[in-house]
Amino acid sequence: MTRIITPGRAILAGLLVLAVVVGALWLLPSNQYIFLPDRAHPVSALVTVPKDRARQDSAGGGIYFVDVFVRKASLFERLFPWVRTGATLYPDTAVLPCGTNAKQQTQADQSEMTRSQQIAAAVALKALGYNVDSKSSGVLIDSVACDSPAVGKLQATDVLVGIDGKPVRTTGALFAAMQKHKPGDVVRLAVRDAGGQRLISAKTLADPNDPKRALIGISVEQAFQAKLPFPVRIDANGVGGPSAGLAFALDLMEKLGRDVDHGYKVAATGELEPDGTVLPIGGVKQKTIGARRAGVDVFLVPAGDNAKEARKYADGLRIVPVESFRQALRALATLPPRS
C-alpha cells in the first residue's frame, strides 16, 4: 500500500521540523557571550544620605547610569546576532579571565562595584569641600594573564601589599619595585584576600614590547579606603563592575544640594579613580543605545576611543567626552539653559 503525502502535509511537516530546529538553537548555549543594551536607569533611588544632609532638587532632570546585559549567547544568536538590536558577540576568553568561572567573575564584578561606590562617595564629598580621610591600601589585581606563572597563585580581587619584603601601598610603588628586576627573576609577594594575608613567589616574564622589562603578568589598579564624614549608601541593585562610578558621584552631589544636571537628564559612564580621573569602560555601544532608549539629553563618556564609539550610535544624543570628574562638572555647568 502506497501512502501519498500531499503538498500541504509536506509543508506542515517541514515547518514542524524547522520549528524544532529553531527552538533547539534558541535553547542550546554557544561558546560565546552576547552583550545587549539595557535601558538607562535613574540613580536617585540608589543613593541615600542622612536626612539632615539631603536636599530636594526642584530643577528637574536627573542622573542616569547605564549597564549592559551579559550572558551566554544561544546558538541561534551566535549564528544570527542581528536578531538582537545592539548585540555584540565576544568569545568567552574576553569575558572570563584566565582560570575564572562565571561565579568567580560575578564576585569580582561585585567587588569592583563596591570599590567604585567608595571612590564615588569620596570624590563627590571632596568636590563639595568635605574633609575625607582617604588612603591607598595596596594594589588591587584586576586579572591574571593566562601565560603568567602567577596563574593559580594570584586571582582577581587579591590585593598586593608587599614585594620583596617591603610594603607596597600604591601602583607607583609596585612599578618602581618591578624596575629593579629583570625577566626571569623570582619576586616575593605579600597578598591579602578575604582569608587574610599570604606570601607567594612568582617568576617574572619579559614584556612583549620591551624584552628587558620584567612583568608579573597581572593587570592592577589602586586599592582604596576612605573614612567619610557621614554615611553614604549606594545600592547598585545587583549590577557589577566599576563603570557607574561617575554617575554615582554626580548624583551624590545632587543629593547634597549641588545642581549638577541643570535640569537635563544626564546619563554618565566611566570608572572613577580616587584622584577624580575618569577611566575608559567597556560596552559603550550597548550603553549608548540604552541611554537613547531612556530619552536622556546628555551622555557623559570617557574621552578617547569610548567617546568615538559612542558617537557612532548616538543618533542625535549629545555625547560629552570627559577625562576627569571636575571636567564633567564644568561640562554640565556650561550646557545651554534648558528652553
Keywords:
339 residues; alpha+beta; Ribosomal Protein S5, domain 2; Pdz3 Domain; 5-stranded mixed sheet; 9 helices; 20 strands; 30% helix
Give me the secondary-structure topology.
Blueprint: H1 7-27, E1 29-37, E2 41-42, E3 47-48, E4 62-65, E5 68-74, H2 75-79, E6 88-91, H3 92-95, H4 102-127, E7 133-144, E8 159-163, E9 166-167, H5 171-178, E10 186-193, E11 196-203, E12 205-207, E13 210-215, E14 218-227, E15 233-234, H6 245-255, E16 265-268, E17 271-272, E18 278-279, H7 284-293, E19 298-302, H8 305-312, E20 318-322, H9 325-333
Parallel strand pairs: 4-16, 16-19, 19-20
Antiparallel strand pairs: 1-5, 1-6, 2-4, 3-15, 7-8, 7-14, 8-9, 8-10, 10-11, 12-13, 17-18
Helix pairs in contact: 4-6, 7-8
Task: Please provide a written account of the structure.
- With 339 residues, this protein is α+β, with helices and mostly antiparallel strands.
- The chain folds into two domains: 37-97 and 115-132 and 230-333, Ribosomal Protein S5, domain 2, CATH 3.30.230; 134-224, Pdz3 Domain.
- It contains nine helices and 20 strands.
- Strands 7, 8, 9, 10, 11 and 14 form a six-stranded antiparallel β-sheet that branches. A five-stranded mixed β-sheet has the order 2-4-16-19-20, with helices on both faces.
- Helix 4 packs parallel to helix 6.
- The chain is globular, with a radius of gyration of 24 Å.
- The model has no long low-confidence stretch (mean pLDDT 85).
